[in-house]
Prior knowledge:
The protein has helices spanning 24-35, 42-53, 78-85, 103-111, 213-220, 229-248, 254-268, 273-281, 292-299; strands at residues 7-13, 16-22, 60-65, 68-74, 94-96, 125-130, 139-141, 147-155, 158-163, 169-173, 176-182, 193-197, 200-205. Residues 289-297 have low confidence and may be disordered. The chain has 303 residues and is an alpha+beta fold. It has a five-stranded mixed sheet with strand order 3-4-1-2-5. The chain has a five-stranded antiparallel sheet with strand order 7-8-9-10-13. 33% of the residues lie in helices and 25% in strands. α6 runs antiparallel to α7. A hairpin with a 5-residue loop joins β7 (139-141) and β8 (147-155).
Amino acid sequence: MKLEDMIMVVENRKGTETNYLLNLTDYMEAALKLWGEHAEDMAGAIGTLYGTKAGKADWSDLYIAANKSIHASFCGSEPQLREFLSGRFNDGEWSFDAERCSKDCLDVLRIYNMKPDGHSLFPYLHYEPVEHTFHAGEVLHNMNGNDYRVLAALSPQNLLLMSMRDSQIIVGNGVRFYERYPKGERPDSDSMVTGIEWDHGVYLGNDITRIDFDILKQEYGEPDRVENVSDLRDKIRKDFWMQKNVEQKEGLPERVRNTARDCLENNFGTSEPDVFDKMLDRGMYDGMYHAKEEQKKISGQSR
């Protein structure tokens, strides 16, 4: 059984709440017993329940009597499950009844290293490293319970990530992929959880427009591999625009922008993008060799 197929149930009797976990079959049987003659409304109730799985609703509510109700929701994530076990969704007096839980739901708790109170069984899990090539666009489950979308693979183990929970942008440094399962057990599709862990994360905020990706690439990426002329020209073009962006950036002191312009003139013979593109296409930067006289014919006075 998967965590996402488990149903979190809060039963309220005269203001006292009892939490337990059920699979879909056990939930339907329990609801039928409680509803009795109103069982014909079961299809609508199940439809509302599935709305919690699709993100259309937080909870499905069944009101049996004036002082008796059931609130249920498919479990959406490991953090949500921990909140449920710790009473985060309860109002007033509550308890967790493990005896009313479906057996396979208790197995899910064990697989995710949780006691019924939400605390960890640590050390109880085995982590098996797995070779994995990270790529932009994939969604990764972190063993801390959160999910992240890969925005860019800066290097094989340094990733630019976005938290699916709050859109926080993070550099995951030293990211590794694992298969995790209870120690001493033979892993199978139900008991194995796959995901990542990293050495540390660098948190960059939520505004992607304020992030300097060139600096991130320099800090956490691999050096550009230059294997042919095309690679060389791509690298030269990137180096030109790194300096050009500094020269054009508003808010910087004029002396800083002038220094960047001087660097462009010294390194590339021009600070004008259209002139630079002509020189690059003619191969005048191949090997970063500057034929000054030929450059002058193309560029003239660029300042």
